[in-house]
Amino acid sequence: MAELLLELLSEEIPARMQARAADDLKRLVCDGLKAAGLTFTDARAFATPRRLALVVDGLPVAREDVSDERRGPRIGAPDQAIQGFLKGAGLASLDEAEKRETGKGEFWFAVVTKKGGPTAEALPGLIDAALKALPWPKSMKWGSGTMQWVRPLQSIVALFDDKVLASEVAPGGQMAPIKFGDTTRGHRFLSKGAIRVTGFADYTAKLRAAYVMLDAAERKRIILEGAEKLCAGAQVTLRVDEGLLDEVAGLVEWPVPLLGTIDAAFMDVPPEVLIVSMKTHQRYFATTTQDGLLANRFVVVANNVTRDGGATVVDGNERVLRARLSDAKFFWDQDRKVRLEDRLPALKNIVFHAKLGTQAERVGRLAKLAVEIAGHVPGADRGLVEQAALLCKADLVTGMVGEFPELQGIIGRYYALSEELPMAVADAIGDHYAPAGPNDRCPDAPVSIAVALADKLDALVSFWSIGEKPTGSRDPFALRRAALGVIRIVVENNIRLPLRNFFKADDLMAFFAERLKVQMREKGVRHDVVDAVFALGNEDDLVRLLARVEALQSFLGSDAGKNLLTAYGRAANIVRAEEKKDKGLATRIAGAPDVALLEQIEEKAVVSALADVERTKGPALKAEDFAGAMAALAVLRAPIDAYFEKVTVNVTDRPELRLNRLKLLNQIRVTMDSVADFSKIEG
Amino acid sequence: MSLGENQVSDLSPVPSRSKGAKPTCFQELILTLQDYWAAQGCLILQPYDMEMGAGTFHTATTLRALGPKPWYAAYVQPCRRPSDGRYGENPNRLQHYYQFQAILKPSPPDILERYLGSLEAIGVDTGLHDIRFVEDDWESPTLGAWGLGWEVWCDGMEITQFTYFQQVGGIEVDLVAGEITYGLERLAMYLFDKKTVYELPYNSASSEVPLTYGDVFLQNEQEQSTYNFEHADTEMLFRHFADAEKECGRLIEKKLPLPAYDLCIKASHAFNMLDARGVISVTERQSFILRVRDLAKACCEAWLTTQTAKAA
User: Fold this and answer.
1) ipTM of the complex in this document
2) Is the Cβ of B157 closer than 8 Å to some Cβ of chain A?
């Protein structure tokens, strides 16, 4: 058994691409190994800013000969089929094939023997194929070459069984080939010269001595532990940000967390601004005080061990942050000199979408829509809703949002508060983009709810009106997210909103239904139960719709429900079978059965039970007592069971009686389907 | 030119910078970078004599990046970004500033090491600082150009833009140029520990006439900002744009890519001025950018013909 070690050293690889590239390298090489009939026990891939590495354990040193049999066409098959077979099997003529009796006739067979041999001979080709197939999100050529890689590729370590594989990669043009070798380089600044390695254990040990931590998970752990220790020493708490941690671990080969200080002059700027500025522009971690407020310390992760223990690095980073935050503070001070209301005219200069006009026009629509929605939101003051809707986009023309677009809304809220606008208005401005995803906070204050719903419904209706509907792969205006946002706001706040009042398009309603179904399926609701309720159609009140789904799900979980479903199934099956034989039957059995033709007591019992159900079901549905309506159905079960026991439906000699009995069965179906479409329920 | 001969001999020699000394002022930073890149085999060119938004517009980059001929050059380029003017009141935003640009085509395998050498030369000690290469793909919509590379951070501050050109004027490059762009003022503020650009020492403190960057450029920032934002004649600028566009097209037909490209630069600057005056709407903006790009593409295509024709 032997080990394969592969390392691709390049110039700095973007952090966001590293993990994926390591996985891809592993997958491609392993697929190649499998295709070549090479077994192995384990494969692990690693990435740092400068290298992808792969180690495969337990490979055989040599392969046996492998013979592969392929069945071809029948003897005497058309020439085209024969030629195809020969080509596919790599045979020159039928002389190289053999005839064999299979029991189903005589067929041509090709027996192809793949020569085995040293594994080291098979590896270069499959490594080369893996390199060519590795799908970087963006790649480039360099020098005079034609090869594509994420950044210039510098060297390749390729060792099998501790020996260098004899091969190379040609970047093309006038460039020297990159020969497979056994040397690499350590940290860009903390290590000098080439490092010769003999195998994976030696490789990782020597890299570590050369200030390279190969494993991103270890780098993350070191960053986290180091940062937390620094924070503890300064009596602050690290704000752990997984996304940032991943990114930072991809920016360093040797992480050195350091603690810096935010200048006191900036601590009155909204904390969101400081956090965004530190995170997105500088990749710093924020910290909080014991009370959970933003603390004046930050953690920066350097990629260097410096002579002065990081003093210069911290000083430099603090200076950079000061410059960044002076900009932010400048905007914070300047922006507050102009009231949000006075910014509205400037929205006329911002195009929302070429076909949908400016932000000013959009705000006009939002205000109208939000007030209309407010009528359905208990406790939403229409005046405040209108005010909030009119001002909700005003921060788009502030300097701060110009600099930090991701803070739209949040900044508007701060400016509204500093103008001493009503708290509900400020909060609605801050909340109206929410929820931005399944884990985002959902607005729950009445004014916020109305404005947040208006923002999303207007986007949906507007983009729908110009034919910009999302497709499976394209949703540039995040309309799926908007619809899911509407659903969450409505459902979580129990808002009784007849969606149909706000748009006409049937396919938009269907779009909502589809999102709701997906969402419920994710929550573990049976898909057939969902379908049974959606099949009723015409329901545009999501709260009511969900109540019905919930009631049905729990009814079907009960014995009464299960038994009734069996009874329903029998009735429906008979009707369906008869309808199949006789196309015109459906119209003839519509409507109530003729009382005069009810001959048996069991028939009369079903009819009277149906009448009872109609009496109780109606008011229950009206009161939205869906559990009550389902319970009412339960009384049908006993009479239906008795009916099937005693009554013959398909009486052959009396067609009018047969028709009436089918009518009765149909009536059972109709009555039950008015509560939910039970035909959609799977046993 | 008319310096008296007798005067020359009387002058005591001005103390010259000793080789390897770290720069102490703005002009020494430029001189050090020039020396360094000259030693790397680059031509040291002079700034292009037209208003442009970035050093990339210099023909030594845009046009020379195309075609099969190798090209190593370095130069300082004054950049004009009318919208960035702040009347001299912002510590580091200027409507006129300097870039130092090195372009190496084809990019040599050790180009990053050479770049790091330039940092050592100007006094960035990698034993004390944290240098990072952070993904930053570059794209110039007006030039129809893009490339991959990084912004280089020193202790969290961007000090250089590094790009491997892949396409210029919509044309895929033959040989990949590595383009290294230093923002000189920002770099100098960092090296010389100044809070505003105006405090930067422009020449040596030991000069008989020591001057700051502010002494040289503050009034210019104030006046040019006032002009750019308040007084620039927009009708005239629209006309200049249209004239330049037309003339550029005419010269392309005459197979004169170099003068045509000058007019493309002129159109681009007129557009930047109009943009600063706030007279171009969002939708118009896009169409102006496309018009400049069309000119740039035509110039690049015409230039490329001359290059390949001569090479053949």
Assistant:
1) 0.90
2) yes
